[in-house]
Design goal:
Immunoglobulin-like; alpha/beta; elongated; four-stranded mixed sheet; binds copper (II) ion; 29% helix
Length: 129
């Protein structure tokens, strides 16, 4: 009389264990789905305009030649202890006088050659794609 009851109990226990494993698997699956939905694609460059820095240091524009996309900003930072400026080859545009540590932001419309009107040997070029 007792034996069938025990057997039943064992089967029930086994079923319960199986259910527990199954629900844990579903939980992991759900977790995986949630995380894969929320994750943003990697190795993708952020879109939109960028800021490209040109350092003015030791009487040089560095990098002296850069290529940027239309809409990008050029940021000139004067790290020398004296003033410089950024002047377009034909004076189509010119930065204000940049004292030590000053910086100047500029969104160029087109490619240009430029120089420093205070030190004519300082030259640079940027290409706007
Ligand atoms: Cu200069």
């Amino acid at each position: 009389m007792l034996r069938p009851y025990l057997k039943d109990l064992i089967i029930q226990k086994h079923k319960y264990k199986k259910m527990k494993t199954l629900s844990f698997t579903s939980f992991l699956l759900a977790l995986f789905l949630i995380t894969s939905c929320n994750s943003t694609p990697r190795n993708e460059e952020p879109s939109g305009p960028k800021t490209v820095t040109i350092t003015i240091e030791q009487m040089k524009f560095t990098p002296a030649d850069v290529t940027i996309n239309k809409g990008d900003t050029l940021l000139f930072i004067n790290k020398d202890m004296f003033a410089h400026d950024v002047t377009e080859k034909d004076k189509a545009w010119q930065s204000p006088r940049l004292e030590a540590t000053d910086n100047w932001k500029f969104v160029p419309e087109e490619s240009a050659d430029y120089y420093c009107s205070l030190h004519l040997i300082m030259t640079g070029h940027f290409t706007v794609k």
